[in-house]
């Protein structure tokens, strides 16, 4: 890359880094921009994929095709799709003929023989093969996991959130464009099963030692949710009578785990669905059903095919992230990963810089689940308990257009931001309508932080923009500073956001009282101790000299 292009990429990244001035500004490459930015070569809307892939487990090798059916959103002659460089593009077929292609980092460019006009529907097929990345610490680093069950039979899974679906199949690898529907055909050695997203349409023995499983996804799906799970699975099922009728529950587990799975899934899945449907609205994917699948890694929110690897323990691998004890009463991976069916799969951020929309709301859902078991105060205590994991290392929102997430605080700080919002709304009927409304109005779509903030502002009747700004775009937690003297208390906010004015609830005697701090000192007559509600507001409190 020459100096001029390097500078352009740097400036594009810098322009998105609201709040990053407190830290060293990260640097990005052209590869980051090719992956993260919607360039003119990505001016097409994906309508349908048919991914057809054969998994050679012994050689950790994959070979397959993907059909791209798309609509041009602008006049288009050069098109970009994505596939990691360690995988070969064997050929690209368009209208029965091979197209030339060029590769640049993990982007692949093809030139059509004629201009494709805006609004035109068209298609091409990519043939590819190679050895995909093998994860070292799935699901955090992403890639394939090749393991074995207790009988020594293969047990294979894939996880690629953040890393990218183009690490194992050719796709338009940008989170803003969810394919409308998809066929996933996976060929596996005879004697094994593949479980993917959606409904099983058919199986076919191929007479070459492999069997193909054809799964159809009837809803929009984000790229990283597309999955495969290969093992000698045993299947059992159930029905949940939910808001939209009977929801099929299908469970695929290793044979040695069948008894444990019946007990653990039975104890967690239906109660989870009842709580989340109540707060968030109907399960988003009734036609495709709900599946839990034994995976050789901890877990992942693959749409309608949730990967499970929590060893059939309550808590997070047997531990309570909150330290309160409430987290040991339920299976963390079932509750958290299934919560993503609403926030992450139904509602998806356009850019992974806004992944707090997925993780903050989903971790908040854990508090709602605790609330369903032990009451509202217990839910608040659980969420307050996970604050000890907040690092305040960088802003929750990452830089846009370079395929980069923000801080991992999107989980713990994000959940506590959402809980703080509930407290500010101060009306649980309205709050529930906001959560359900988000899933109704943004469901099966991609969205942005700005859209979510504007929606909550409008539906709550409160301007919470500065609250979002502080928690999402700056590192520190707002500090409520106060000092007492002669029967009065003076108080103010210390915040990076100009004019920060979040109301806060305090306990005065035996009564709750709302105050309206700003960044300027205010005075209140003190009738008893000044006790801010730090359990329901994620703030720090400082008594001034």
Q: List the uncertain runs.
A: 1-23
* Total number of strands: 29
Number of alpha- plus pi-helical segments: 10
Shape: globular
For the largest beta-sheet, the strand count, sense and barrel status come to: 8 strands, mixed
From the alpha-carbon coordinates, what is the Rg to the nearest angstrom?
Answer: 25 Å
Structure, described:
- This protein is an alpha+beta fold.
- The model is unreliable at 1-23 (pLDDT under 50).
- The protein has helices at 3-15, 30-36, 258-280, 332-339, 356-374, 376-385, 409-425, 428-441, 449-460, 465-473, and strands spanning 44-56, 61-72, 76-82, 87-94, 97-98, 101-104, 107-116, 121-130, 143-148, 154-159, 181-189, 193-194, 199-205, 210-217, 229-231, 233-242, 245-254, 290-294, 299-300, 306-308, 347-349, 445-447, 479-485, 488-494, 504-508, 511-515, 522-525, 531-532, 540-543.
- The longest helix has 23 residues, at 258-280.
Short recap of the structure:
By secondary structure, the chain is an alpha+beta fold.
Task: List descriptors.
8-stranded mixed sheet, 10 helices, single chain, 29 strands, alpha+beta, 545 residues, globular
Break the fold down into its secondary structure elements and pairings.
Elements (H helix, E strand, L loop, with lengths): L2 H13 L14 H7 L7 E13 L4 E12 L3 E7 L4 E8 L2 E2 L2 E4 L2 E10 L4 E10 L12 E6 L5 E6 L21 E9 L3 E2 L4 E7 L4 E8 L11 E3 L1 E10 L2 E10 L3 H23 L9 E5 L4 E2 L5 E3 L23 H8 L7 E3 L6 H19 L1 H10 L23 H17 L2 H14 L3 E3 L1 H12 L4 H9 L5 E7 L2 E7 L9 E5 L2 E5 L6 E4 L5 E2 L7 E4 L2
Parallel strand pairs: 1-11, 17-18, 18-20, 21-22, 23-29
Antiparallel strand pairs: 1-2, 2-8, 3-7, 4-5, 4-8, 6-7, 9-10, 10-15, 11-14, 12-15, 13-14, 16-17, 19-20, 23-24, 24-27, 25-26, 25-28
Helix pairs in contact: 3-4, 3-5, 4-5, 5-6, 5-7, 8-9
